[in-house]
């Protein structure tokens, strides 16, 4: 009804060795053509597995993405990976500003903005993550926080084809806790409104995912919330049957 094609995205984080590639093969084999005619499915493995995962999903409807990037295209940045390098491997998406990057690698909203520009430069779709901490929620600052993260992070001229937003409350990631559907609806509506201020009519086309403890058992309820256009899934994306169960919410 929204006209936006749902996206179910998996974030493997720092999990998976070459022996984990069969997980993406099982996801590939478990998705019906009927489902993939209606939704997009993305797996973001660690960088070390991008090539093998791209090969594993070749010819299928699954997209492969990175979990992070350096904003610059190349240079003396030991250990970093650019959007061009991810694209070169066959990745088509990249997660930008995940809360774990913000918390453990001191990523700022300005840094997120630069990385989102880097993703666009290389033709990748950037999944820009926003979300409040437990403390910020308790202080009633949730909307202020996520709107500011969006306002700084989203580059001018962002389009639905190069930008996805993920609302991920920090306190809901990996904890088994989730906001209520009403809380999610409030945040997503506010993000959509803020996007409208930033990019105008294009805002209606941009997908806004919910992330944080999405499981097969709660996916249907969470994905039914207005303005929720899919999920960013951490833990449950490591188990093919769980990830497929979440995709089946559509
Ligand atoms: C995430 O890391 O993006 C995430 C949502 O994790 P989990 O699903 O494990 O809460």
From TrEMBL:
Gene3D superfamilies: Aldolase class I. Coiled coil: none annotated. Keywords: Cytoplasm, Gluconeogenesis, Glycolysis, Isomerase, Plasmid. One of its GO terms (biological process) is gluconeogenesis. PROSITE patterns: TIM_1, TIM_2. It is found in: Cytoplasm. It is an enzyme of class 5 (isomerase). CDD domains: TIM. The active site is at residues 98, 168. Substrate binds at residues 11-13, 174, 213, 234-235. Its EC number is 5.3.1.1. It comes from the Bacteria. It catalyses: D-glyceraldehyde 3-phosphate = dihydroxyacetone phosphate; L-erythrulose 1-phosphate = D-erythrulose 4-phosphate. One of its GO terms (cellular component) is cytosol. GO terms for molecular function: triose-phosphate isomerase activity. Pathway: Carbohydrate biosynthesis; gluconeogenesis; Carbohydrate metabolism; erythritol degradation; Carbohydrate degradation; glycolysis; D-glyceraldehyde 3-phosphate from glycerone phosphate: step 1/1. Homodimer. Belongs to the triosephosphate isomerase family. Involved in the gluconeogenesis. Catalyzes stereospecifically the conversion of dihydroxyacetone phosphate (DHAP) to D-glyceraldehyde-3-phosphate (G3P). This is Triosephosphate isomerase. The gene is tpiA.
